[in-house]
Design goal:
With 408 residues, this protein is α/β, with parallel strands linked by helices. Helix content is 38%, strand content 20%. The chain is built from 15 helices and 14 strands. The strands form two sheets. It has an eight-stranded mixed β-sheet, sandwiched between helices. The chain has a six-stranded mixed β-sheet with strand order 11-10-9-12-14-13, with helices on both faces. It binds adenosine-5'-diphosphate (ADP).
């Protein structure tokens, strides 16, 4: 069975075609500058991540999502770069949907009711759900024979209990507006938790894990027996860790303080917290590789940004040791988690008392590959597990289409 995975963002569409249930990726790609009249392009890879990988770039204007998907399907069926001869070969389309709220506890086949549900959640995810929905609507038109399945970023965090998800604000806001912690990156946290169990050769149900997804967006999750019990992102993906350009947790009164003292509008402040804060706000760079280069050249603010980022991760690890009561492994994933030994070392420094003892050599060599990077005698294992959100979406889609009963 072939499953196409689509991750539609506001200005991009990522895609990947899998043969399931083997989970083999046949091709992948990304359409960028979608919605702009000129300058659009699609990068496409055949046999991604294998020795036979081949890559090509197509330049097309991509004025909207429908146009981008049309071009993508054209590539998928083209003689030179395609992997199928007919779109009918695709049996299902899996979509990443950022916000499932309390409506969607698991992946679902999209029908009118589900579309309405995703639409009703737009106030909770105004930056993401509209683009996700657009991707679904275009795919349903283009693949009328293949069911679309919505896979939610919030789904893995549905097991949080009220004690972890309720904000200490007037309770009516939860009741009336759904104001609560939802958590994000759930597709990634679930994938790496399962992979970690496989690497440790222990059933996930027996393990206590702290999973750290450290990319340009970053979050931590406490996972007990495969169920998430707490996570650092909140109502939106702004909360928790210091990120590339997002502030993470800050004193809520800062918003009003800046409004009063700078004359910035609510919209300008939200943009600033989202796009000009975090690592970028502190040192003018949001890519950790650039920050390391600047640190080497004596840039003090780059050094400070690096330390603040690592300190914020370390504090969440400490908090989740307390929340879980016992921890078997700390798992690092995503751009920084998978590739950056300096950050991992700085985060784990001083956690030996909690049983987290890094093996320096292994930490240095684990770059982009799955590896146990703790000392053999370390009571808590430390793992690097490359994430694969597209594969996880394909797995969920396949399960929804072949195994699960429908319920939402
Ligand atoms: P996202 O999907 O959230 O955009 P990624 O998971 O791709 O982010 O992570 C992107 C970030 O990962 C980059 O901003 C960069 O800081 C970091 N990163 C990627 N590769 C490396 C590397 N080799 N060394 C250090 N940091 C890296």
């Amino acid at each position: 069975m072939k499953i196409l995975v689509i991750n539609a963002g506001s200005s991009s569409v990522k895609y990947q075609l899998f043969r399931m249930p083997e989970g083999i990726s046949l091709c992948s790609g990304k359409a960028e500058r979608v919605g702009e009249p000129t300058g659009g392009f699609i990068t496409h890879k055949l046999n991604p991540g294998t020795a036979d990988e081949r890559k090509v770039k197509f330049d097309y204007p991509l004025p909207d999502h429908a146009f981008a998907l049309e071009k993508i399907t054209g590539i998928l069926t083209s003689p030179e770069w395609g992997v199928i001869s007919d779109l009918e070969e695709i049996s299902g389309v899996g979509h990443r949907v950022v916000q499932g709220g309390e409506l969607f506890k698991k992946a679902v086949i999209v029908d009118d009711r589900v579309r309405e549900g995703i639409k009703s959640l737009i106030p909770l995810a105004p930056l993401h759900n509209p683009a996700n929905l657009q991707g679904i609507e275009v795919a349903m038109r283009m693949f009328p024979h293949a069911p679309s399945v919505a896979v939610f970023d919030t789904e893995f965090h549905q097991t949080l209990r009220p004690v972890a998800y309720t904000y200490p604000l007037p309770y009516r806001f939860y009741e009336q507006l759904g104001l609560r912690r939802y958590g994000f990156h759930g597709i990634s946290h679930r994938y790496v938790a399962r992979e970690a169990a496989r690497m440790l050769r222990q059933p996930l149900e027996t393990l206590m894990l702290i999973t750290c997804h450290l990319g340009s967006g970053a979050s931590v999750a406490a996972v007990s027996g495969g169920n998430c019990i707490d996570t650092s992102m909140g109502l939106t993906p702004m909360a928790g860790l210091v990120m590339g350009s997002r502030s993470g947790d800050i004193d809520p009164s800062i918003h009003g303080f800046l409004m009063r003292n700078t004359g910035m509008s609510n919209h300008e402040l939200e943009e600033m917290f989202n796009r000009e804060s975090g690592l970028l706000g502190i040192c003018g760079r949001n890519d950790m590789r650039d920050i390391h280069n600047a640190r080497k050249n004596g840039d003090k603010l780059a050094q400070l940004a690096f330390e603040i980022f690592c300190y914020s991760v370390k504090k969440y690890i400490g908090a989740y040791v307390a929340a879980l009561g016992r921890v078997d492994a700390v798992v690092f994933t995503a751009g920084i988690g998978e590739n950056d030994p300096l950050c991992r070392k700085q985060i784990c420094k001083g956690l030996e008392g909690m049983g987290i003892v890094l093996n320096r050599k292994r930490n240095l060599t684990a770059v982009g590959n799955p590896e146990v990077i703790s000392m053999i005698a370390s009571p808590v294992k430390v793992l690097v597990v490359p994430t694969n959100e597209e594969k996880e979406i394909a797995t969920s889609t396949w399960q929804t289409l072949t195994v699960d009963d429908q319920c939402s």
